[in-house]
Amino acid sequence: MSECKTAKRGRAWFEALTGKDGKMPDGPGSLMVAEAALGNEPAIFVGLAPDPNSRFPRARNAEVGLEEGFYGTRALRQVMAEDADKPVKRPIISVVDSICQAYGRREELVGIHIAAAAIIAAFAEARMAGHPVIALIVGRAVSGSFLTLCAQANHMIAFDDPEVLIHAMYQDAAARITKRTVEELNKLAEEIVPMAYDIRSFNKLGGLYRLMQVANPDAPCPQTLAEVKDALIQAIADARQSSRDDLFDRLETEGAKTYRAQSIKVRDMMIEQWNQA
Amino acid sequence: MSETFQEQRSYIEMNARQRARQLLDPGTFHELLGPFDRVESVWLPKQDIVPQSDDGCVVAKGTIDGEPAVVIAMEGKFQGGSIGEVVGMKMAMAFHLARKDNEKGIPTRAVLSLESGGVRLQEANIGELVIAEIYSELVALRKHMPVVVVIAGNTGCFGGMSLAAGLSSYVIMTRQARLSMNGPEVIEQEAGLEEIVASDKPFVWSMCGGAQRYETGAADVLVEDDADEITNAVKELFRKGQPKVQRTDQYELYIKRIAAMDTSKQWMPEDIRKVWKEIAQ
């Protein structure tokens, strides 16, 4: 796993999937939104890419910042409004390669927690309204990036690749906060699967729909692109078949039975005691 | 004399269980997954950390103003109010079950009393997954019934739970409390001293403390550290019903405001207050 905090793949995959640059007329340069054909229907693609010219100096490397959150929310809400009366809602594909949320004074003064919450609510309500929401994780999805851009999806697909990273916090910061060395954290991660930094360990927890082998994750080639599109189409079909309006299918997986046994126990006991209370 | 002398009781000094009891109507507190159920973190003992029998979160059913309610109160003193598997799942299920009751026609209220430093790094990625499940259920519940968040104590509300506050229908804060996505230490570390000097406590509070959050619309009610005042504020919000517009639906207003700000210079808390007043809708 590389600790390098750069996100270089998001734009390549967004452009390969849509054939467009996704630039919005009045949105930030980091935000990509476009409609493109996927299988035999139109789908909405959203993603972030680095923007060295961002007005916000702390949000130039594909971080989820204020503009990304609020303009991303506007774009999603517009899609939902357009499809509100349609029986079949367009799928929404979140192409994810975002290093984390933006850390800065301006961000906190405005309330980046509201910008992040806004786009989370938009993804969640889109899913509940019947838009299949699929996260395609091609690179970084750390901390706020995971929570905002991935986790409200019906299904998450991640590339099986060392550059793909889903975690609560980068390892150097986690070491500082838990007062451990990086070596100690690595040793712990061998036993404590939720602390590990590799995507295969994350996959053990049962949250991913699919971990996907891809030939060249840095530069999409036609063969790989076709495979990724097929995986998205399959995930969309599965999402449409499900009658769930929650995310608890992630507890029905084999991985969850092993690694989230305590989650399942809490779920079952809460239901039992709630009904008795 | 005892009838006229009303002593102000501190909410901040109460533990999570006392807070849940305080927010519910007297005599209605019924704890779910209480300490005797001993559902604890399985990940902390593996790291030589002593777990707690409620994992730092008290969930209790009861009534508020006579209506069915659930209170979820976090204990900031256990592991910094961090979200691990058990605490997170208790919270997600409390929202889920409240939502299901609302869907069945039982109008159930939910109050979330937060003291949280964010995700529990010892349970890192399970914490992330559980937090996503909390958000999903919070969003589903607030369609039926307002979700009220109380942030009172010195731990404050950071990381994943700051987003839960952002998703909620109403936020009640004291002046002592802080609400911020990234903690000042993390910002200083990641972004440098020109962003924040974390040891400058007055500045930190002027940026994300209850008074500033109330002045700039991120909190709806500013209260004294008085248990009865907080309880009454919660009741008042439920009497008021749904907010005119959810905070997360105010993106156009926020877009207008941040477009009006000059990002070529650093900002002070009063800059935000000024622009927020000028661009009120």
Summary?
With 277 residues, chain A is of the alpha/beta class.
Roughly what percent helix of chain B?
Answer: 25-40%
Mean pLDDT across every amino acid position of chain A: 95
Oligomer: heterodimer
Shape of chain B: globular
Q: Would you list the SSEs of chain B in sequence order as H and E?
A: HEEEEHEEHEHEHHHEHHH
Mean pLDDT of chain B: 96
Beta-strand content of chain A: 15-25%
| CATH homologous superfamily (4th level) name of the largest domain in chain B | 2-enoyl-CoA Hydratase, Chain A, domain 1
Largest interface: A-B, 79 and 80 residues
Count of individual domains of chain A: 2
Give the SSE order of chain A as H and E letters: HEEHEHHEHEEHHHEHHH
Helix content of chain A: 40-55%
Record keyword descriptors for this entry:
heterodimer; A: 277 residues; alpha/beta; seven-stranded mixed sheet; B: 281 residues; 2-enoyl-CoA Hydratase, Chain A, domain 1; 2 domains
Explain what the structure shows.
The complex is a heterodimer of chains A (277) and B (281). Chain A is of the alpha/beta class. Chain A has two domains: 10-245, 2-enoyl-CoA Hydratase, Chain A, domain 1 (Alpha-Beta Complex), CATH 3.90.226; 247-277, no CATH class. Chain A is 44% helix and 16% strand. In chain A, helix 2 (66-82) runs parallel beside helix 4. Chain A is globular. The model of chain A has no long low-confidence stretch (mean pLDDT 95). Chain B folds into two domains: 16-248, 2-enoyl-CoA Hydratase, Chain A, domain 1; 250-281, no CATH class. In chain B, helix 3 (124-142) runs parallel beside helix 4 (160-167). The radius of gyration of chain B is 19 Å and the shape is globular.
